[in-house]
Write a structure and sequence with these properties.
There is one protein chain. The chain has 67 residues and is mainly α. It has one domain (2-56): 434 Repressor (Amino-terminal Domain) (Orthogonal Bundle), CATH 1.10.260. The chain is 60% helix and 12% strand. It has 5 helices and 2 strands, in the order βαααααβ. It has helices spanning 7-14, 18-25, 29-37, 44-54, 58-61, and strands at 2-5, 62-65. Helix 2 crosses helix 3.
C-alpha cells in the first residue's frame, strides 16, 4: 500500500502555489512538491494541518492505495 494524495488538486482549487502552501503550513516549497509527487510522506501533524487549511477531512486529501 502506498500513500497517495490530492494536494495538487486542492491547491489548484484555491489558486495557491507550492511556495504559498508551504508558508501556510510551515514547510518549504520543496516539501510540498515532494508530497505531491509521492516522494515524501508527511507527518501526521503536517497532513492534519494541510487538511485543516482546506477545511476538509484528512482522507479527502490523503489516502492509501494498493499496488
Amino acid at each position: 500500500m502506498h500513500l497517495r494524495n490530492n494536494l495538487k488538486m486542492y491547491r489548484a482549487r484555491e489558486n495557491i502555489n507550492q511556495q504559498e502552501m508551504g508558508k501556510m503550513v510551515g514547510v518549504s516549497r520543496q516539501t510540498i512538491s515532494a508530497i505531491e509527487r509521492g516522494d515524501y510522506s508527511p507527518s501526521v501533524t503536517l497532513a492534519l494541518e494541510i487538511a485543516y487549511y482546506f477545511k476538509v477531512p484528512l482522507e479527502e486529501i490523503f489516502y492509501l492505495e494498493e499496488d
